[in-house]
Amino acid sequence: MMTATAAAGEGAHSPSPAAVSLGLSVAVVSSLVNGSTFVLQKKGIVRAKRRGTSYLTDIVWWSGTIAMALGQIGNFLAYTAVPTVLVTPLGALGVPFGSILASYLLKEKLNILGKLGCLLSCAGSVVLIIHSPKSESVTTQAELEEKLTNPVFVGYLCIVLLMLLLLIFWIAPAHGPTNIMVYISICSLLGSFTVPSTKGIGLAAQDIFHNNPSSQRALYLCLVLLAVLGCSIIIQFRYINKALECFDSSVFGAIYYVVFTTLVLLASAILFREWSNVGLVDFLGMACGFTTVSIGIVLIQVFKEFNFNLGEMNKPNMKTD
Q1: How far apart are CA 170 and CA 172, in angstroms?
Q2: Which residues have a Cβ under 8 Å from the Cβ of 24 and sit 6 or more positions away?
Q3: Could you give the CA distance from residue 236 to residue 163 in angstroms, rounded to a whole number?
Q4: pLDDT in tens, 290-301
Q5: Residue 188 phi/psi, 5° resolution?
Q6: Rounded to whole angstroms, how far apart are CA atoms 187 and 256?
């Protein structure tokens, strides 16, 4: 038992408190920036449609696109500092921020239940931070290569690829404009490539500039992961804009967060095994935090059409004879 514990301790690396604090700060800021991207892009698409021009000519759309790029860069930096199972759920903070922004820019409704949902999303994110993994399970290029060639992870990627091909070439052309889950599924499944690739690039980059035999292998691995990341982001970008042309930005952002987070955590659990360092109490805490966030998002979106406010609650019930 002592040997196994020691081996686990050697394989896991605890980031310094400063690195964790910096990673958390970057993750929070990136989630807020990402929360504004869908709203700004949707605003640009609406403005372009009114003028009868392409949204590619609208400055508001481009501001949302630039914000998306900045948010992804921030996520990249955060993934290199703290575990994936912490950074990804923190994207929840972008959902209430995006809903509040949409209520002003797009005149989308946000009633008292929506505001309560914003509060729950923020509270759930704090719970996730408190119970997040305190160590990394993959810290070197050699460990990363071993994980990438694991038959379980390779089999998972093959299943994801088959599902993406089916969605992109058969289902999306026929049902994409009428079913929001089609575009969300495509973008979320691509998260199985983008997030692990981002994390892997950060690990491989550590060995590129070292003068040793492994630096060449690290360079090749980094280039492959960059190519995968680039292709995934381009495809995601395309289908996000397709979804924003057809659906409400807040609804898309909320459902996208839940599905994307679930699939990314699944991919990270298979590849990086970060959950192996989480105790029972922390696991239950993270599960409760994620559930709280999801309930908050449901309150923001499902009841957004209800005309409900605190004033109506204070009115006495009027009995009629």
Answers
A1: 6
A2: 78, 82, 86, 90, 129
A3: 15
A4: 888 778 777 766
A5: -75, -40
A6: 8
CB 174 within 8 A of CB 165: no
What distance in Å separates the CA atoms of residue 163 and residue 165, rounded to the nearest whole number?
5
CA distance 293 to 122: 7
Which is nearest to 214 in space by CA: 140, 110, 106, 133? 140
Tokens (6 digits) for 39: 């709203």
* Pairwise CA distance, residues 24 & 90, whole Å: 9
Q: Distance (Å, rounded) from C-alpha 245 to C-alpha 170?
A: 20
Angle at 299 between CA 293 and CA 300, to 5 degrees: 90
Q: Token digits for 82?
A: 């703290």
Q: Cα dihedral angle (215, 265, 180, 117), rounded to 10 degrees?
A: -130
Type of residue at 104 = Y
Paired with 136 in beta bridges are: 13
Cα of first residue to Cα of last residue in the chain, in angstroms, is 76
Distance between CA atoms of residues 67 and 120, nearest Å: 25
What are 33-77's pLDDT values in tens digits? 888 888 898 889 889 888 888 888 899 999 988 988 888 788 777
d(CA 80, CA 197): 11
